Amino acid sequence: MQLDPFHLAFQVRNIAEARAFYGDLLGCSEGRSAETWVDFNFFGHQVVCHLNPEMGPTGKIASHANPVDGHGVPVPHFGVVLTMDRWKSLAEKLQAKEIQFVIEPYLRFEGKPGEQATMFFLDPSGNALEFKAFRDIETQLFAT
Questions:
Q1: What is the pTM of this model?
Q2: Any idea where the VOC domain is (predicted)?
């Protein structure tokens, strides 16, 4: 499956926090930057954290949650689909770092088309992220 990289720009309350979270914790390499923004290679995609000093010390929180498989999925959110091994490794790393999950790592839609491992957590500014994985990305990613 050939995928073109996406570009996503979003607000953060603090650039240093964003560097620590996306760079150090998630392992995203840094690209271009200025005093008020920084690019990251987010698993092959370009995300840009733009400083919004009006966010204040608590940042923002997801504005809505939709019920999916018995959980309240934060909306908006973004993330990436990983291989199952990479997903498990990241979940273990985040658990070891005692990251607070919005939705703990688990298997969603178990036994159904589109069965997937998923987890949700917030960055320091309150942006919701979802990381998911399928046993076979090619056949399951868009399964109905």
A1: 0.90
A2: 4-134
